[in-house]
Design a protein that fits this description.
heterodimer, A: mainly beta, six-stranded mixed β-sheet, five-stranded antiparallel β-sheet, B: 0% helix
């Protein structure tokens, strides 16, 4: 079983819709969770991080964490074509204390 | 510096040659990561440094790969006897302990 799993997509949504990206992780003791956006040919850039169960909102982005179910999600409201990118979920694994990434979900927002 | 700096940006090398890739992390960041990303693929973990602790080398794909971090700051990833399958973008990131990691612009390595 992979440590961090994401649906590779592609996920396509119309402009203005809500895009929902999901991620599951294997280490129940994981403490820190991150979402990165990566445009083609560029490095990953941090969008959000979340440490506690529940929701965390930042502008059009909402991160949701459910430690009991071992999943973390990212909602993008009012999706824009500029949101088209690959979204990477990352988890700090307790014990190893390093950061492992999912394979990423490719999102396309159609005008 | 303001961000993570990697050099060179691009490197073309002949098969069998050794290469060194450099990463200068954000000042004060205790953790430093190296990842590899092949075209169209996800991030492959290579090695992790945290403060003065022994590095986590569990992701290094073979003994041709090695990395060091001098003085808790700059890190060098060395690939000996390069092979064509080593061609990829090598990404470095740094963070404060368990905090979010910030990436450099990467080094694109092409082995011909």
């Amino acid at each position: 079983q992979k440590e961090v799993e994401q649906n590779s997509g592609p996920l396509s949504v119309p402009e203005g819709a809500i895009a929902s990206l999901n991620c599951t992780y294997s280490d129940r003791g994981s403490q820190s969770f991150f979402w990165y956006r990566q445009y083609s040919g560029k490095s990953p850039e941090l969008i959000m991080f979340i440490y506690s169960n529940g929701d965390k909102e930042d502008g059009r982005f909402t991160a949701q964490l459910n430690k009991a179910s071992q999943y973390v999600s990212l909602l993008i409201r009012d999706s824009q074509p500029s949101d088209s990118a690959t979204y990477l979920c990352a988890v700090n694994m307790v014990g190893d204390n390093d950061m492992r990434f999912g394979a990423g979900t490719r999102l396309t927002v159609k005008p | 510096g303001a961000g993570v700096s990697q050099s060179p940006s691009n490197k073309v090398t002949e098969k069998g040659k050794d290469v060194e890739l450099r990463c200068d992390p954000i000042s004060g960041h205790t953790a430093l990561y190296w990842y590899r990303q092949s075209l169209g693929q996800g991030l492959e973990f290579l090695i992790y440094f945290q403060g003065n602790s022994a590095p986590d080398k569990s992701g290094l794909p073979s003994d041709r790969f090695s990395a060091e971090r001098t003085g808790g700051s700059v890190s060098t990833l060395t690939i000996q006897r390069t092979q064509q399958e080593d061609s990829a973008v090598y990404l470095c990131a740094s963070s404060l302990a368990w905090g979010p990691a910030f990436f450099g612009q990467g080094t694109r390595l092409t082995v011909v």
